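Re-running Sigma 54 modulation/S30EA ribosomal protein C-terminal domain-containing protein to confirm reproducibility after the cluster update. Everything else is unchanged from the original entry.
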Amino acid sequence: MIGWALSPASTERESTPMSAPRRSTTPGEQPTHLHLSGPVTDREATRIDHALTAVLHHHDLGGVDTRVRVTALPGPDRPLLVQAVLGPGYALRTQIAAPADFTARVAARRLDTHLTRQSGPALRPWPDAARPPLAHTGPTRPITRHKHYRLLTGSPDLAAYRMDALDYDALLFTDTDTGDDALVYRAGPHGVRLARAHLLHPPRETAVAMTMNPHPTPIFTDTEAARRLCRYGLPLLFYTGPADARARLLYRRYDGDLGLVTAAG
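Result of re-run:
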């Protein structure tokens, strides 16, 4: 999944309808807020809810209000996409897709591993066998989601740690060392790579091992970027727009369409 920096002043357009939230009713447990999208059965939703709630209690986080979004995806094995976001004060999130019969177990394992790793400095391993990149060639897909945010401002290290905490594969941010729009993303021999919109020199010494993308950032319209991403089977595309030279991030969604992240301010 692709990332962006959260901001109070943000706009988002989403074309996929979603059901109204419901709350878990498991006695003695802090309810999770369940959002179901598509044909998700009550049994599947309950199993996912109970599995994630058990993990939260195991990590002494049972009192933390948690939002869980379950989305039915197209496919013969009825895959479900599960996103769990811990409540205020916890910048933690996980996301994983799996066949419906195994979703609760896979989502619980993902959350448990993620919470366990937060006690240390290591980022999650890359390549991520549990969540392969969404990358395949095919016809140009439409951009169905556009997120427009004030970007996180910080060092490449901060961006890499935020990307990991939110279980993203990429994070758009403003690099404090240069003031340039930049991207950290999962790639390369160390598992993290840095790209900037305009400045290509390597960062100062970083705590997180990372490589620098040495190639100039291309200039595309959004239509051109979508065509290139799909034609060459890319999981994401970092580019600047011809009108304002600001960084833009195009990425693949689990439903097969594309999402776009742009910088506000």
